[in-house]
Amino acid sequence: MAKKKFYVVWEGHKKGVFNSWDTCKKQIDNFKGAQYKAFVSKVEAEDAFKGRYEDYKGKDTKKVLLSSEELKKFGKPKFPSLSVDAACAGNPGKMEYRGVDSETKRQLFIQGPFEKGTNNIGEFLALVHGLGYLKQKNLNYPLYSDSKIAMSWVKNGQCRTNLPISSENQQLFDLVKRAEKWLKENNYTTRILKWETKAWGEIPADFGRK
Question: Is 123 within any annotated ligand binding site?
Answer without folding.
Answer: yes
